[in-house]
Amino acid sequence: MAETRAKVAELDPVWARVMREAEEAVANEPLLGGLVHQSVLHHPTIERALAYRISLKLASGEMSEQILREIADEAYKTDPELALAARADIVAIWERDPACHRFLQPLLFFKGFQAVQSYRVANWLYRQGRQDLAFFLQMRCSEVFGVDIHPAARIGRGIMIDHAHSIVIGETAVVGDNVSMLHSVTLGGTGKEEEDRHPKIGDGVLIGAGAKVLGNIRIGRCSRIAAGSVVLEEVPDCKTVAGVPARIVGEAGCAQPSISMDHLITGGT
């Protein structure tokens, strides 16, 4: 057993750490034993655990847990990028969220992480041409988590959505790698046109709570959007914008604002 665990830790350090923390959680709180065993310890890989967790959360009288689990298992088997992105998301949350002390927490408890992984499966379905099923997952994700991400949107790795209530990401939105956003963020369109109409968020961007980014505009890499801002124009790289409508108020303040999570304008720009 020790040899097997050592091999898993070498090949998949994120999953090995999740497993270790799951065992510690059961030892510390036996009442969570059933939850932790079913969600983590019964599964040989992170892919299987993710499929189980997503299917459990999104199941309803309209679509059974078993069917959803088969769909998710197929997605993870067909596209390894889904689970690689999930691993990056777990590490990102652990690094950036002071409320996250273990890799285990996002998988079990954080709806932002669970919603993004549900989106990733829906996006896989959408790319496979199974759009109605993708829309069903989008609907259930919105109903269960309060997060509405169109399955056609493109979202990178290392995403942290803190608290995650009332997140809206539109159909033609693009979100780069290592982006952090807080609750009530909208990446929306500005009209009824069907063409490319949603924001393009660069790598390393930090988006504050309640911010609205509207239209087919580019938000430059490593920039910051202050809480409550309404962004209607493009933002250059490494700048801070704030206000309604938003305007440039200074530099980003650091090389990686999405990692530092510094929202303060005074002293940070």
UniProtKB/TrEMBL annotation:
Q: Where is the signal peptide?
A: none
Cited InterPro entries: Hexapep, Hexapep_transf_CS, LbH_SAT, Ser_AcTrfase_N, Ser_AcTrfase_N_sf, Ser_O-AcTrfase, Serine_acetyltransferase, Trimer_LpxA-like_sf
**What GO terms describe the biological role, i.e. biological process, of this protein?**
cysteine biosynthetic process from serine
Q: What PROSITE patterns does the entry give?
A: HEXAPEP_TRANSFERASES (PS00101)
Q: Which domain of life is it from?
A: Bacteria
Q: Which reaction does it catalyse?
A: L-serine + acetyl-CoA = O-acetyl-L-serine + CoA
The metabolic or biological pathway listed in the UniProt record of this protein is: Amino-acid biosynthesis; L-cysteine biosynthesis; L-cysteine from L-serine: step 1/2
Q: One short Pfam family name for this protein?
A: Hexapep
What UniProt keywords are attached to this protein's entry? Acyltransferase, Amino-acid biosynthesis, Repeat, Transferase
| Start and end residues of each Serine acetyltransferase N-terminal domain | 14-118
- Please give the start and end residues of each transmembrane region: none
Record-stated family: Belongs to the transferase hexapeptide repeat family.
Give the protein's recorded name: Serine acetyltransferase
